[in-house]
Design goal:
Elements (H helix, E strand, L loop, with lengths): L16 H22 L4 H4 L2 H10 L6 E4 L6 H5 L38 H14 L7 E6 L6 H13 L3 E7 L10 H11 L1 H15 L5 H6 L2 H8 L3 H8 L3 E7 L3 H12 L5 E6 L7 H4 L29 H15 L3 E5 L9 H6 L4 E3 L4 H13 L3 E7 H4 L3 H9 L6 E5 L16 H5 L6 E3 L4 H13 L4 E4 L20 E4 L5 E5 L3 H13 L6 E4 L2 E3 L3 H8 L3 E9 L4 H10 L11 E6 L9 H7 L4 H21 L1
Parallel strand pairs: 1-2, 2-3, 3-5, 4-5, 6-7, 6-8, 8-9, 9-11, 10-11, 13-14, 13-16, 16-17
Antiparallel strand pairs: 10-15, 12-14
Helix pairs in contact: 3-12, 5-6, 14-20, 16-18, 21-25
Amino acid sequence: MLLDDISEPGDLRRLTFDQLDELAGELRDLIVRTVTTTGGHLGSNLGAVELTLALHRVFDSPRDVILWDTGHQAYVHKLVTGRRGRFDQLRQPGGISGYPSRAESPHDWIENSHASTALSYAHGMAAALRLRGELDRRVVAVVGDGSLTGGMAYEALNNLGHSGSRVIIVLNDNGRSYAPTISKLSAQLAQLRLNPSYVQARERVRELLRGIPGLGGMAYSSVHGLTSALREVVTPHQFFEALGIRYAGPFDGHDIATMEHALANAAEWDGPILVHLLTHKGRGYAPAEEDDVQRLHDLRVQPKALGDHDASSVAPISYTDAFTRAVLDEAARRPDLVAITAAMPGPTGLLAFQSAYPDRFFDVGIAEQHAVTAAAGMAMAGLRPVVAVYSTFFSRAFDQANLDVGLHRLPVVFVLDRAGITGDDGPSHHGVLDLALALAIPGLTVFAPSSAGEVGVMLSEALALPGPSLIRFPKTPARVVADDEVGSGLAARLVHRGEGSVCLLAVGKTLQAAEEAAAKLVAEGVDATVWDVRVVSPPDLRMLADAARHDLVVTVEDGLRVGGAGSHLVAAMSALDDLPCPVPPVRQMGVPRRYLAQGKPDQILADLGLDAAGIAQAVLGALAVERDRAGTV
C-alpha cells in the first residue's frame, strides 16, 4: 500500500498523479473501515481526500499554516501528518481526537470545532506573520461544509478584504453542512455547479488549450480575459471581489493536478484570494452518496432501530426521539408554533416537523445568533418559536438569548440537545455550559427532563408560559418510566422520602445515578431523600423547604458546577423566609471547570464522581466531615 510509506506531508510530493489517485482510494477505504467501527464524520472526509492531498503537496505544513473549518473534515490531514498508527483509536478514550488537536501534532493549529471561525484565526495569523516579517510563510483557511453560512465568517471576510491580508481561502463547496446548506450564496454556488453552459464551455476551453502541442500549459494560464468574461456572470466572483478578495474557480475538487495548479498560483497572490473547489460529500462510498439528507455526515456505530413494531407503540429510545414526537403533537394543536434550527434538522429531531410543516420550519444555516434573534422577531409578531440546537452551540448565541429574547421577555422556547457530557466529540462538544449560561438570564424558565416522558410534558408547559424557557437533555439514551413517575407543571417531584439526614437534589439525567446512590447508602445506614428537580429555575420552593430540613443537602448535575444548577438552588434556599432552622451544609456536585477529552459519557461521569458510586461516596464523606466538625465544637 502506498499509504504505508506516508508518514509526513513531504512524502506526498514524490508520488505521480496516478499514484495519488491510488492513494486517495486507500485513504477512503481506511476512513470507511475506521468510522464504521468507531463512529465519526464520514461524508465530509470522503469528499475532502484529493483536496487535502493537493494542499499538502503545494504548501509546507506546519511552516505554512493550514486551518480547518470545520475541523471534522480533517481526517485525511491527520492520516498524512503522522497519525495513521493511531487512527483506529479515532474518538476513543485516550485515542486521537475527531477534530484537529494541538496536543497531537504541530500540523494542527486550531482545535475549536465550532464552525465559521477559521477565517478570523487566519486574519489574526496573517497579521502576526506580517508584523514579524515572516513574509515567506502562507496562511491557508479551508472553509466550506456549511461554515460560510455563519455570520462570523462574513465578518472575517470583510476584514480580510479591507486589510489585504495574505490569506488563501480554500472553499470546499460540497453544497452541504449537516444537511443541504442554507444560504443565498450557497444557492448561487449550487446553480453554478449545475449550469451546463458554464461547465461545458469551461471544459471545452480547458481541453482545447491543453491540447496545443508545446504551448498547452502556457495557453491555459494566459486566457485571463476569457475566464474573466465567463466569471463576470457568476455571483460568487462578484460577491467576493466586492469585498476585496480575489476569486478563482470553480475547479474540480477531485482533480489533484488542477487544484495544485490553482493553489500554486494563489500562493503567489499578494492579498486575500479564494480558491473555489467543487467536491462531492461522501464520494466513493455508496451509502453516503445515496444519503440525500446528510451524505452520512456523521455516523453512529450502533444506529437505533424500532424493528418491526409500529413506531407509535414503541417507547422513545432517546430524548431527541421524545422531542420529535412532542413537537409534532404540539404543532398539530398550535398553528402558531414554528421550529428553527441551525443547519441540523436531523440531529435535533426536526426532520419530521420539516416534512409535516414546511412553511413553519426554518433552517438558518450555521448561524445560531441569527436563529435566536429571528425567533425573537417571530415571537414579537405572535408566533411561538421553538429553537432547537446543540447545547454546545447555545453558547454562541448567549448575547442574543439574553438581550434579544430575555430582556424583551419573549415566549421563545430553547430546546438544547446533547446537553451535559456528550462523549466522543471531545471538549468542544460537551454541553456543560448551558445551565450556567441559562441561569444567568433573568426570567428564563429552565427545564431538565429526567426521562423521555418528561420531554413532552415540559414542552407543553414551556409553550404555555408568557416568557422565555429552555429545555435541556442529553445525547445518551432516555429512561422510560411509568406515567406516575412523570412530573407536571413547574413542580419538582419527590422520588423517595428518607429519614431526614440527607437530601439529594438531582437535575435531569443525574436522577438515575442519585436513585442508585440512595440505594447504596441504605447499606451504610443512610436513608436519603431524593428529589427530581425538573425545573431548575424558578425552583420549587416546596422542594427547597423540604431539603433545608435535612442535615445535609447534595445537589447533582451534569453541567458546570461553578455557577450551575447547584449554585442557583443553594442561593434560592438561602433566600427562603420561613425556614424553621439555618440552611444545612450543602455539597454541590457537577462538572469541574476544565476541558474534558473525548470518552464514553458514562465513564467520564464516573471519573468525575457523578455516577452512583461517586455520589454515595461524596455523601458519606460529607457526613463524616460534619460529624467531625460537630465533635470539635
